[in-house]
Structures
1.
Amino acid sequence: MNQSVDRRTFLASAGVIAGSSLLGSPVRAAVLPVPSGAPAAPNFGLTKFLDPLRIPPVLRPHSGRHQDLLTIGMTTARLRLHSQLPVTPLWTYEGCFPGPTIEVRSGKRVRVAWSNELTGTIPLEAVRVPFTRPSPANLPGYRAPDGSLPAGVAPIDGVAGLPPWTVVHLHGAVANGHNDGWAHNAMLPGDAQLTEYPNRQAAAALWYHDHAMAVTRFTVYAGLAGMYLVRDAEEDALRLPRGEHEIPLILTDRNLDTDPATGALTGRLLYKLPYATATGTMVPVTGPFTLVNGVIWPHLDVAARWYRFRVLNAANSRFFQLDLVDEAGTVQHDAVRIAGTDAGLLPAPAAVPAGGLVLTPAERLDLLIDFGRFPGQRLRLTSTGSPGEPDIMEFRVERRGRPDPVTPPDRLAASYVRLRHGTTVPADHDHVFVALLPPNVANEPNPVLWELAEITDPAELPTRFPVPGILQLTDPATGKVRTFRKVASLFDDTTTLFLDRGQWAVWHFIQLGGAPHPMHVHLARLQLLNRWTYADLAAFDLASGGTTTPLPAPGEGPRIEKWEEGWKDTFQVRQGEWVTVAGRFDGGTGEFMYHCHILEHEDMGMMRPFVVHPPEVAPFHMHPGGSGHSGHQAGG
């Protein structure tokens, strides 16, 4: 990572308010027209690619008597997201948005004290607006010129008074449950969350963020996120780009409030939640401003050589479809190689698919880009199909070519093993079945998650269908009809999923309609095994939340690309897909969570707990409904 950027340099470049003095000269906000029904200019008066990309400072733990130590303060800060904007109040780690990049060594235990030093209530405006097309959520501001609220627009009750109640989750970490950032274990200012991370995992780009129960969508939006890099000897030996040629790219999107009378952007964060007035269904939040490392539409000066970018989608809900585009508008995928995914390096660099790279919330990509092909040119990183402005950032390549000291190797992680059902995933493994259901199932206005258990006793099978909470599915691996019942849905329903430490588990995510869901499983690294797609979901009855007849077996879905075979912890499950992923739960014990990583979905109920315990303890654990593990289910 770039070692030349310290915290003071970062804060100065961000235009931080220190006391009452602005570090840097004041800048007048652009005066914009008041948002109306007509689409505004996509940049809303801000000059694209005006500001340089900021590189978050790097923190490495210092050695104590028994282990490496870090203290990281959560503080309220005022930073510039663009030099043509006023400062924006934020909740941050160490005064930075995003937080500092923490860099550790694999196998080296680190203790972190996350100190809550935040002040005031949450620094954002949160409102509901009626959902229409084009969506008003992708326009800044929400008040009429006289300051009144238009029809259907209202503050989200209670958000303005939210205190700084926080708990940090290290996303992708292999650690015990008491270090995982359990959502209910949040703390108020004046306290610290003490955690230990064993870092017993391969080199990977993890990230840390707030995970407070029911309000994660607000706290992360307010700024509480940062990157965490694990290094190991295997990665060191590859001689990939390092130092100033290895750069984090943390992608987010945000909306901003405006002065009602002038239309000028105030700099204050605006959380603008669309909802369907007829049903009350909430639409996940996206914003018109794309940020990289906390800067709206930045640029980066690069040498004409290979670079390594650690890319993270830290947005609440926005999917980025990434393309590298030259000055003529031509997509230049040949200059990009994918070196790794969420949880580590690939066995070999993978090509970018012709349709670009879709990066869902919480996913990471390890990208290698050869700028030596483009001396003196400007290239853009774009997001195809994004609402509003597709541009993300600009790369400005130096004119002078020079010998490149780095050539990416043909082979990367020699330790990588591709998982196969029944071979590298042993026959003795658990199965977990989770249904992802669209809005308006049984009058529930938002998407829901059902934990499923198979009905194996013929005497328990219903005689007539549909039955609420009962799904009949044709297993794509065996062709047999299987009947499942809902055993849990909300987070605080009874825990039903118990896994033995060291056990392999295959998770089945079955999406029966609605928007895609990036499903994240805590604790383990996993691989995508299969992806099937239903041609017809007509047998699923929305009103009852059950199937009228068995759903036919899904057919083969889109092929699994080479880069999708990597170790991951977050997986996209699209409409009508049955996706299976597998991993071994041997890195820790305790209570963990799995959930959709669209933060609005997570907070509105798409999150459930699971327990990992030693197998010797399992016989003594009185599970709900008798002995046995919900996860220990027969099947393909």
2.
Amino acid sequence: MAAHTWTSARAAKRIAARQKEVTTVEIKEYVRDTDLTALPRNKAYRVNAAHIYVDIKNLSEMLASTQIEGETCHKRTLRFLNLHYRAVHRILAEVDAIEVDFHNQRLHAVVAKPYGDEAGRVHRAVAVAQLITDVLAKTGEDGDDKIPAAAVRVGIDSGVALAVCNGRRGHTEPLFLGAPANLAAKRSAGSKVGIYLTNTARGVIDLADDVIEDDTALSAQEIERSQEKAALPVSADQIVKAWRKDLEANPIGKFSFSGHTPPFSNLDLETLTPANSRRQDAVSIYADIDGFTDFVAAGVCDDEAAKDVVRTLHVLRSEMDAVLHTEFGGRKVRFIGDCVHGVLCEGTAQTTDQAASVSTATLCAAAIRSSFEQAITALEDDGTLEAGHGLGIAIGYDLGPVALTRLGVKGAMIRCAVGRSVLESEEQQKRCDGDETAIGQSAYDAATSAVQTAFGASRKRADLTYEIAVDELADKADATAKAAKAVAKAAAAGGLLQSSPAPARDYAFADRRTDPNKPAGFA
């Protein structure tokens, strides 16, 4: 197992380099059919549009379809998501909406047309939301391994947001920053299905704008009114027919899993397919910038303030990614707005060292917080951030079987990581304020006594920085922390010990299959 360390000096060097990349930032107004798919990191477009968030509510049921979280429930879940993603991808292309992100069970799309007509955009967003709902109600599969239709809840808001580049190292897509995206996501987060508009969006189309947003779904009559005004060029039956024809011509391959020899940092996610997927016990980590929505809202309409938003996001997310990937051998699955989702593990392709994985994740989460605080100070020092910005970072993680693959069709494939621990790690992040870190029950149970003591019965800890974490864990005989501390001490003394980088892919152990492999003729 490599000893992973974090140092303030390395972080400072990276942060300074990222700051230089966005010294000059350009803010432009979105115009007709502007291509947002390949934005440079120092350019953003101000876009007035309606935002749609679709949340598939029965994903957790798929993951819980078997008592043991084995390959069967992961294969069913991935097929479930793949079927529905391909249907939604087709819908958005047909109705000329912008596909922003499809992160496991959540879809974010933007309706920018008709230009200059906000009411028209909201009506169109409602019609698109109902079309997605109707299509996904028909895209399950019968048979021995029945795949259910998706049960969805949709949130919609309207307003101005910033479109920026999302992603690094060859995996980029548009990202929309601002209240409309965030508030649409919040409206989609409830437990009941239906279409839920913010009071802002309701007011735009002359509906009562003083309702309890999360409890007031659109009525059938209200949806029909929007459908009539939007007059979408395609019906649910047409989409389903084309979807089925496409599945016949381009069937979803069978999901086949192998383990990946750690670290995950040398796993090329862009080579994954259903037949070439990865699956093993791993730690899923969510790190979310707390207070960022209000920060964006305060600056979205002012050019200079908007430039600072772009600078801040670029520096903070890049450093979070670097800590995960470079320092601790993890792999970013994707950026989700101002949040990073990643995975890491210690051990072999066949057997994960659970305790060591949790200890490494604990040090990684603490290092992310230390780097975040250092980046905030650097941004304050160069004038990008003013006093009272209110930014913090909330981190959650958990341990369990994780399946990694890509879904969709060639030319439009998306990264995907599924597992009960993936859902739980996000829930742990959500219970944190901007100075807190939380660990899931499974990770806590597998952790060393040092990690358990650090978090206590609440499994949540405030102000857990790298220096605090490595000292506390090493002092209580956590082997991972002791190794990291020894490497740091040797490096400070000018010794030969160094933190081990991720091994070159050519010299990593070969990936091994994790499904049963018996000779022909044997039961």
3.
Amino acid sequence: MRLHLVPGEPTGIKVLSAAVLWGSRPEVLPPAHCDGVAKSICHQQQPVLVLPENKVLFSPNAICRFFYEAGGQVLSKQDEQWMEWDVTKLQPAVCSLLAQPDKSYKQLGETLRELEQALNCGKSPYLIGTSPTLSDLVLWGSLLPLLVDGNLPGELVCFEEVGRWITAVSTLSACQRAMKMTFEDCPAFISKPTCPPSGQRGVEQTQVGDCLESAVTKEEMTRTRDVFLHFREKQPQPKPIEHPILPRRGEENVLVTSALPYVNNVPHLGNIIGCVLSADVFSRYSRLRNWNTLFVCGTDEYGTATETKALADGLSPREICDKYHFLHAGIYRWFNISFDFFGRTTTPLHTKIAQDIFWKLEKRGFLLRQTVEQLHCEHCVRFLADRFVEGTCPLCGYIDARGDQCDKCGKLINATELKDPLCSICRRTPVILSSPHLFLDLPKLEENLESWLLESQGSGDWTFNAIQITRSWLKSGLRPRCVTRDLSWGTPVPLPGYENKVFYVWFDAPIGYLSITANYTEHWEEWWKNPRQVQLYNFMAKDNVPFHSVVFPCSLLGTGDDYTFVNHLIATEYLNYEEGKFSKSRGVGIFGDNVQASGIAADIWRFYLVAVRPEGQDSTFSWDDFMLRNNSELLNNLGNFINRAGMFVTRFFGGHVPSLELTTEDVTFLAQTTRLLHQYLQHMDKARLREGLRCILLLSRAGNQYIQQHEPWKRIKGSPSDRMRAETVTAVAVNVACLLSVLLAPFMPETSGTIQKQLQVPSTCNVLTDDFVCWLPPGHAIGQVVPLFHKIESWQIEEWKERFRGKRVDKVINSTAKAGQSTKTED
């Protein structure tokens, strides 16, 4: 194998380091010796590894991974997550700074803070263990262009752990040797940093047409052609869904949960993308994969938030729950959330299961009894649970903090720690009194928890923030966690002496996943006590992580029962609104009922929310960006391609797919399409939903380029050979449109259905495999083709900005609720 490097280019250092450290011995050559496929890549000044049979790797990270695995190393899930973080966060931050040297270090500083926290939580000199792994070299190599005399620049020296780690990696003999091979003399290696070239992007980020075409091998083209033309009959059939859905032996059984939304208000867009919509997109994808999938969710109806809202609205807690469960169900139905069952926590089965878990924890010695100092309102004659208290945050000074968490700094706090506390009901100052409570003995369960976390995070797909948040909880050791509250609305504590108390919502609410499933099927334990046959996916916003990764697992571990634990914890960051934050309590942002009143189809909202899904960092809903993405990505890109492909069939060929005579150009395009299909599957398998959607847009953009290049509207009027080209291009294009209709189904189900109806797509194509096949063969008749999307005008955006400034319109809520109260638990 041959490794081509540009002399003096920093990106070659981590590639050489990986080769030396893990025992590979490639022939190192300059770009001048490149030939064939590699030539078109080398001009971008990135490393190129040419393998036998002229297979080529041109991403530094991909080359490092090849050397790592060739050296007998096994890539861990943690390594994969760090490499994803490198591509999505670290490299863009470094490139942005180097492209504009005078720019503030803020973006890079925020990124390095995550790395600093991870290193600070660890107990070894490297990211994952006591020896360097792939992630150490990859991240270190991305930071190299910034280093001055081997250290971070002065603006970043505050990151002491990062500096220590850089030194540890830099002094590895393999890295020292690589630096000497790359730079002459090199006393302190890099002193004049240069911006990493665009080639540092991974293959999944390479633009279509960049170098995919030249990288297609003969073997790849042969298989692509064969599969496209002859594999249609070999594709699996969609499996019918029969309720109740239960696990099946020998199949991929996928259990999907979304964080249970509170019933104290209408959900806003941040709530929707953070839990139910993300879970829905993955559930729909899972079904397309023919995985045996159950998607359950429901409203979280117990706790302080419900009592507070009931008091504010002059209703009973039960009436509040009925009202808002009905509203939530209607909003999710409008968004086309495909729950298999949408339940609620205020059911007899929930009480039974929660109390069963409690009794097992009690009998096995995992509950402690402690007296707690609490705020007591003498005017209301009651102990004040967390959310009945407001005051000034003791950590950041925010004057409107709650008794459980500060909205500004995000820190968890105790109500008694608040400065100038007030009862949220009567606005009087409470006093501190003592009250007996029960605590879950987390320290006693910590060793079991860490063993489980090591296995789950190592074998499953946890998002980077989920891992970091969990590590931060474990860093200083766990403390007992109170699981009871002085409330009247909640699951009763069945222990004598605690009759006037209920379970704390964060002990009680996750048990709702079990009880909601139990309300769906009496065989619920086949899902929840079946860890060897079931893969559990949890979707939530990052503030819910510790309760799902620490408190709830400890509750289940303490019972001694063989429960199904989360394998894949998928957490988002926060979605902000324009210049501020969404807030249910303060009525800031766009809420579910506002969305319905906008007149914009649910699929457009689904598309945009996934497109800006806060996967690696906080993102922002922007009306201007909403208009831009609709008009450019949906209307001019995706919609334009699918409409053109269908219209060519109806206009030039009487509504029937024409003949195919594939040329090298066509097969190359089919191979590119197959590569994007594989990238889509890789991202979606790991619940990287935004990247999956990006693959769809790249494919439709490639389709438009393919049509534009071959101009079938001109060739149809030419010679017989020109007409044949027009037929082939049209047939290929309409089959790509068919594939797009399937890939789009998890994101925009109504639009997907419309495309399939227009193209008369056979239902058998709705199973996703690694193969791109010709589902619309020559002679296939399609239906009427009409545009899929419509332009949004700037005057509409201005109108919506004014209309939806975040002011809640309670009349809308009340009128909707009066239209029909319901306690129905299934949608």
4.
Amino acid sequence: MTLTRRQALILGGAGVVGAGIVTVPISGVSAKSASKLSDRDMPRPYGTPLTIPPPLAYQTTVDADGVTTRHYTMTQRLGSAKILSRLSTPILGYNGIFPGPTIRIDRGTRAIVRVRNQLPAKHPTLGHALPTSTHLHGSASLPQYDGYANDLTLPGFYKEYHYPNFQPARSLWYHDHAVHFTAQNVYSGLAGQYLISDPVEKGLLPQGQFDVPLTISDAMFAANGALGFDDREHSGLWGDVILVNGKPWPVMKVQKRVYRFRILNASVSRSYNFRLSTGDPVTVVATDAGLMPVAQTVGSWRHGGAERYEVLIDFRKYAVGTRIELRNTSNENNRDFDHTGKIMRFDVVGDTVNTADPTWNSIPTTLATSHPMDLKATDAVKTRRFRIKHDDDTNIWTIDDLTWEEVIASGFKRVMANPALDAVEIWEMENSSGGWFHPMHMHLVDFQVLSRNGKPPFAYEKGPKDVVYIGEDETVRLLVHFGPHRGRYMVHCHNLTHEDHSMMLQFRVGLGADEEDPNDPITAAPAVWDPVQG
């Protein structure tokens, strides 16, 4: 086969993407196991309690203008997770744990997060180099603090990320975004939740111990308890063990009251279709970018990689001792195993309920209308169309036949679009890759899903989003307001093996191609040497 210039760039430019034949996952594929564990080491569902990641400590300063800033420090380092009963699992973790510490912060309070890379030079089992780039997913950060894939922090260095936190209340998450190895690094543990609150959300929804972050992922294990990694020739990784907050199929004791769950799909590739074992509905109150205008009652919902859905579950009507499972009926183009239909279990207990808390029995209907849900399609000044594809010759995933390698080869100038600052546009994305689903993420912006295959969006996605699930042969139309910053931001598939190989491009907001960029994502705020090692 004669290589085109584009294929030569892809295969040779970064030195990490190889040609090959993709093994296509067949809808409904089921198998006993992906792990190499012995039967006695394989975890059993509902054998361990749910744990909640600890909060991250901080110091506070107030400047002369009265602006409050919280200062955090997290260290990326090797850790050891107790996932299996007899074996330890080496991980990479923020502060050495998975999920990383939870950051909870009020809207309007700024944050500066120092992320120290104290990882070894190479991954201890997979062998790739370990520079990192931390992305606060869902934050309208300046480009130099957005976790741009090639804005790398080497081991022994740190970078301070500045987060404005001016957006309405929402569930964000932070994760590694290092070019070409995002999948391996996130899978190894570099992820955690970051939650912004505001008075509107606090007045409507449960708080404190009844506001529960759930980070859901899947994993496979080697015989010695280490994480296995098989992305099936860059098509996707599907593990046979479901983890919730780092524990396999855990159990949570719940009171007879309403709970709020912030559910993040942090899996590398797997999508879920969640529902309760009782058949009772849940109430979806928030999507990726915050509160929905109107709460939606659903019996199930499709949940792609990196999407966040906040749901209320009402345990009041269940008798003490009732056991309720959160289950997964999966979606087309996943790979399922014996127990991937199970997620976790809730056990109803008879603890005294604090009825002075008005949220204990409240299921709000009207929530909050915020940007971009107040936009209309007629506000758009331009419509752009993009096709998501797979190149069978190079085994590369593309957007409009372009790849991140071509962005690199252009000196990071090549863009898929150049919207003006504050422009409103319609972006139409068509999945023509054949036999796959793609959770597509746009950095910087929130968007409204206008339609799916010409029909209204699903009830549960009628809120502000930054990731959209595009199933096989689906076309979605998105209404996007580009702001509040100028500069370059990434668009990519959040099946992280697709992103790494190489379904990622960038758009440029409010800048000409050769215009000087004071917020260059690579050079404006580089990492610095960490004088404190270890």
